[in-house]
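fwd from M.: "can u put these together and see what the complex looks like"

so here's what she sent:
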Amino acid sequence: MGKDITHIHGYYSPDDLYGKIIDGLGKLGKDLSKITLDDLQPVDEFHIRGDTATKELIKLAEFTEDMHILDVGCGIGGSTRRLSHETGCRVTGIDLSDEYIDTAANLTELLNMQDKVNFEACSALGLPFEDNSFDGVWSLQMNMNIEDKLAWLKETYRVLKPGGRAIFYEVCGNKNTDLHFPVPWAQDSSMSFLLPQQSFREAISSAGFDIKVWNDKTDLAQKAFSGATKPVGEPSLPILGVYLLVGEDIQSKAYNLHLNLDEECVSLIETVAVKPA
Ligand SMILES: C[S@@+](CC[C@H](N)C(=O)[O-])C[C@H]1O[C@@H](n2cnc3c(N)ncnc32)[C@H](O)[C@@H]1O
């Protein structure tokens, strides 16, 4: 039996998330019948370097229109929709959070993309799909919450077709293990499981994948968070932001991520791993 992950599910379970986003779009003066991917970008791309990283990963992935891709740990589906929009491929997103999945589905209907993009709530450790179901896998910054990396990677491998490419854009550990908490993916250490890059590579290979690309993106992450400052007093938050997903202490989380990057506690990688044909 798997470990209890109720606390991780609870962390990613805000109330009425879709309602709050719609409210925010209204406050920003947006016409709901003309919402674009860019309008949602401040809130729906919950990973380091947001849509800039998503666009780089789309190029790296080389997914094409005829493909059906699985987004593992899709959040509220920002990069899921962008991937489909830019390539024409069909994408199924899964996430542990029911609230995120409901929001992802509602936002996708708002953008009228439901023919190509759909969602299902489940754990990445038990995917409700047959073996060899997907042409590609896309997984952005979810591994941090997964203790049993090999179980997750094997499950991902199982549903990917032979010859298929898996894109992982992931936070790893680094030389120092004493992280500052909270961070965007975890309120405390009970939710955060980071492997140093070399161990993460070994886990991907042990699951059966061939690693074709391995890029260390830590310097870009450091630059992205270099301006994060220690919050003082009441938080000053934008109308739309990822704080709607994980709480108003987001500025402390961003500041701690900045410290963790600069003090070599965390690193960031992108990789392309292929299931042998
Ligand atoms: C930092 S967010 C990234 C979301 C999304 N990939 C993005 O880039 O916008 C991490 C996501 O992993 C999901 N997650 C954590 N543990 C999971 C699990 N066992 N199965 C599926 N999703 C999980 C969380 O619910 C959350 O949506």
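replying to her w this: The pocket of S-adenosylmethionine is lined by residues 5, 8, 12, 45-47, 73-75, 78-79, 95-97, 100, 123-125, 140-142, 145-146, 185 (CB under 6 Å).
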